[in-house]
Amino acid sequence: MASVIVVGTQWGDEGKGKIVDFLAEKSEYIVRSQGGSNAGHTVVVGENKYKLRLLPSGILYEDKICVIGNGIVIEPKVFLKEIDELKNKKIKISNLKISDRAHIIFPYHKLLDELQEEDLGENKLGTTKNGIGPCYMDKAGRIGIRICDLMNKEIFAKKLKFNLELKNKLLKKLYNHNGFDYEEILKEYLEYGERLKPYVADTITILNKAIKEKKNILFEGAQATMLDLEHGTYPFVTSSLPTSAGACSGSGVGPRKIDNVIGVVKAYSTRVGEGPFPSELFDEIGNHIRDKGNEYGTVTGRARRCGWLDACVIKHASYVNGLDSLAITRLDILDDLDKLKICVSYKYNGKIIEDYPADLDILSKVEPVYEEFEGWKTDTRNIRDYDKLPKNAKKYLERLSEITETEISIISVGAGREETIICKNVF
Ligand code: GDP
Ligand code: IMO
Ligand code: MG
Description:
33% of the residues lie in helices and 21% in strands. By secondary structure, the chain is of the alpha/beta class. The strands form 5 sheets. The protein has a 10-stranded mixed sheet, sandwiched between helices. Strands 14, 16, 17 and 18 form a 4-stranded mixed sheet that branches. A two-stranded antiparallel ribbon has the order 3-4. Strand 3 and strand 4 form a beta hairpin. It is globular, with a radius of gyration of 22 Å. Bound molecules: guanosine-5'-diphosphate, 6-O-phosphoryl inosine monophosphate and magnesium ion. Magnesium ion (MG) binds next to loops. The site of 6-O-phosphoryl inosine monophosphate has 23 residues, from helix 4. It is found in: Cytoplasm.
C-alpha cells in the first residue's frame, strides 16, 4: 500500500491528468485537494478524450473512489455540468465524495475576479476568471461559505445574506454595479445543494480510514509549483497551494502518511497567463512547439507561451515538494528538433544564479544560461522501454535528472494511457 502525491513542477498543463490516469489503475482512491475549475486535465483513453476540471482523473475507472478534498473551491454549476457531461458519456459517478469543508464559489466571486483583473490594468495576472482568487480571499477572510453550510438551509440562507450584503455594497460603491439578487442566488444554490447532497461526506475520515486499511491513495495535483501561492512566481500565481504540502492540508492527510511524491515535468516549458518566464521562446522553435504540441489552454483556449526546459524551475520544485522522482511528459513533441536546450542557471549582473530568485524584477532581467543537446530526430511514440529510447533523448533526460538531483520514474511519449515508459514503480 502507498500514498502517492502527483504535482506539477512548472506552470501547469504538464500532463498531470495523463500521469494520474495512468497511475490510477493501481490506486483505490484518487483525491483532488486544492484549486477548482481553473484546472483542465485532458485524459485520453483509447479513442475517447475527456476534459476534467474538478473531477479527479480516476473517475474514468468504474471502481475507484474519487475525492474532492477540503482545500477545493467548487463552483456548483460548472461542477454539476461536468458530472452531467460524463454521465452522458456513460461514466459512473456514484463513487464520488465531496468534502463538507470545501468552499463554494458564487457569481460575485467570478465578477470580482474580472473586475480585479481590470483594476490591475497592465499588471493583470491573466487569471482564468473562474472566481478562484476572490473565493480563497473569503476563505482566508473567514467569511467563506462551505459545502456543510449548503447542507443546512437556514444557516446557508443567513450566511448568503450576510455575504451578499457585503459584496453588493462593494460592487455598488466601488464598481457602480447593480449587485446580485439574494432570492435568486438562494434558490439557485439550494437546488445545487440538493443535487450535490448524495456525494457530500467527511472525506478526512474516509481517507484516514483508507490509509489505516492500507489502501493505495493517489493525490492528483492541479496547477503547479510555479503557480503556488507560497513558492511560485508571486504575484503571478493562483490563490491556493498546488505543492505537496497543499495536497496534505487540502485533504486532511498528515505528511508522514505520504510515501512518494512525483513531480510531473513537461519536456519543455509552457505558461498560460502573465508573469516571468526566463526561458520563453519568441522564435520559430517556440511556434513549432506550440503547433506540434497544440499548446492552447483546456479551460480558456488561450495560446500557451512556450520555451526551453528550465532546470532551475525543476530544481526549485524538487526542493519545495520534496520530490522523490520525476514523471516526464510530452517527450514526443521534441522528436523533430535538430537541437535542444536546457536552462541550467541564470546570469544576472554578470553573476551566475542557480536557484530560483524571489524578486520578479531580478527574474525579469536574468539571462538564461543554456546547455545545448543534439536532437534525436526519431519518433518516440511507440517506445515502451527506456533502453530503446534514442541515445540523445536519454542524454537530455539524464542531464535533467542530474541537475535536479531527482531520478526519473515515468516517461510519457503520447497522450494515451499505454504511451508510457516506466523506469521505476511508484506504488
Ligand atoms: P494537466 O493540466 O497537467 O493535466 O495537463 P493538460 O491536460 O492541461 O495538458 C496536457 C496535454 O498533453 C493534454 O492534452 C494531454 O492529453 C497531453 N499529453 C499528456 N502527456 C502527453 C505526452 O506524453 N505526449 C503528448 N503528445 N501529449 C501528452
Ligand atoms: P492545470 O491543473 C495552467 C494560471 C492562470 C493564471 C494564474 C491565476 O490544468 O495545470 P487563477 O484563475 O487560478 O486565479 O489564475 O494561474 N492557472 C493555470 N495555468 N494550468 C492550470 O491548471 C492553471 N490554473 C491556474 O492561467 O496565470
Ligand atoms: Mg491543464
